[in-house]
Amino acid sequence: MPTFPRLVRSLFTVGLLSVLAGTAIAQPTGKAAKGRSRYTFAQKDAVSPYVKNVTKNTDEDQEVDGSFTRVGYRSYTDMLTEVEALRKLKDWADTTYQRRVAAIPPGGTLLVTIHRQGPKNAELSNLTLTVTAKDGKEVFAQTLEHGAGRFFGRDLYQAQRAIPFPKMDAQELNVSIRDAKLYQTFDYILTLPATVAQ
Length: 198
Hints:
The longest helix is centred in the N-terminal third of the chain and has 24 residues, at about 5-25. The relative contact order is 0.17. The chain contains five helices and ten strands. It is elongated, with a radius of gyration of 23 Å. With about 200 residues, the chain is α+β, with helices and mostly antiparallel strands.
């Protein structure tokens, strides 16, 4: 009978080691394991005046590990101004103009742009976008739909998605984009401008 406890102990040890090995294999490595470094103070985005970057997300990072993610915001007023200018340039008929104005989302648009290494990594469905108010209440959440990237240069691929944003009062919101494949989260601060009566 002394062999039975030894057998149980051996099986327990093998089981425990296999669980630990599986856990170690599933953990992210490299920059993903460390997480992205953060700015001490949020930095204004070079492209969108409404967005501030919280996590460091620069072109230098893109060169190292191919994980560049940018969020832009276009307000209703900005898009209406663009449509007005295009109307003057292109001499649109009234129906074309009205159709373009009706297509503008009342809360503006978030524009998500990613650069990733390799065509399979530039998959938008890996991203989950979450917007929270300053009090921590979730305002908007969406997992992006499937969309493959286009060749951007060297081994980088770019993918973009415009997301209609709900109409809200002027306020500061926290925007977080989680990449399920890279195990990384990109954080931003979005300052919504005052909306114009439509």
